[in-house]
């Protein structure tokens, strides 16, 4: 087994235990576990930990904590909406500036066939995944 295969499999073990993987990926993890004792042992350790956690009595979070978490989530949603608006405004300004600047010159050919919507969408999705923040 390569370290990469083991790292990939170990990163999926929890989802594998919870039957949350797509069938093809679950099959690959199962095949890996059949030939890798290290990953099999890690899966067994996770299964034991899972059983121990499930045996603990259920406790409710204090109301104050629940309220704080809800408020934090709402602040996060507001920041995300603000970032999205700022991003759209920046794109609009850039497009408008480019249109005005281009009035006196010959239009340049587009560098690729990718639309601005695709670029903005990809940028926002990458930022959402990486958690990248806008600067001040």
Characterise the protein shown here.
By secondary structure, this protein is mainly α. It has 2 domains: 53 residues, no CATH class; 67 residues. The protein is 74% helix and 0% strand. It is built from 5 helices and no strands. The longest helix has 39 residues. The radius of gyration is 24 Å and the shape is flat. The model has no long low-confidence stretch (mean pLDDT 80).
SSE order and pairing:
Blueprint (H helix, E strand, L loop, with lengths): L2 H15 L5 H13 L1 H19 L7 H39 L14 H15 L6
Short description:
With 136 residues, the chain is mostly helical. It has helices at residues 3-17, 23-35, 37-55, 63-101, 116-130.
Query: How many domain modules?
Result: 2
Summed up, the helix count is: 5
Helix coverage percent: over 70%
Tell me the radius of gyration: 24 Å
Binned strand content: under 5%
* End-to-end gap: 46 Å
Give the tally of β-strands. 0
Overall average residue pLDDT: 80
Q: Summarize the helix and strand pattern as letters.
A: HHHHH
Q: Profile the largest sheet.
A: none
Structural class: mainly alpha
pLDDT under 50 segments (min length 5)?
none
Describe the global form.
flat
Throw out a few tags for this protein.
136 residues, mainly alpha, 2 domains, 5 helices, 74% helix, flat
